[in-house]
Write a structure and sequence with these properties.
This protein is an all-beta fold. It contains no helices and 10 strands. It has a 6-stranded mixed beta sheet, with no helix packed on it.
């Protein structure tokens, strides 16, 4: 059974920083393509960062240079370091697999999702 547990979301001012964490179980972690998704109010869930088995990462244009995704195969976790946060980063953030060749900003459907973690950027 796949379990995804996200944490680290908070209320932060514009320009602030946060680091999100995701614990994953029930998957073969070291072989998995993984990513962070977010869903803003009234919008579809979108893929914002992905990381391959070797650690190669890609980002949606809106977060490039501000977000960094990491993975720890030893701990079966991924994290998302977010800097210089903007109002438009406000969303619920989720971790999950990504399909091979996933397109940044796209929506992907899986049968399992965690509860997500809320990031609110507000002054």
């Amino acid at each position: 059974q796949v379990q995804l547990v996200e944490s680290g979301g908070d209320l932060v001012q514009p320009g602030g920083s946060l680091t999100l964490s995701c614990e994953m179980s029930g998957i073969i972690f070291h072989n998995a393509l993984l990513g962070w998704y977010r869903q803003a109010p009234g919008k579809q869930r979108e893929l914002v960062a992905k990381i391959g088995m070797s650690g190669a990462a890609n980002y949606v244009d809106s977060v490039k240079g501000r977000f960094t995704i990491f993975r720890s195969n030893a701990e079966s976790t991924i994290s998302l370091q977010m800097r210089n946060l903007k109002f438009e980063d406000t969303a619920v953030y989720y971790c999950n697999h990504t399909p091979p060749g996933a397109t940044m900003g796209a929506t992907y459907n899986y049968d399992y999702w965690g509860q997500g973690t809320q990031v609110t950027v507000s002054s």
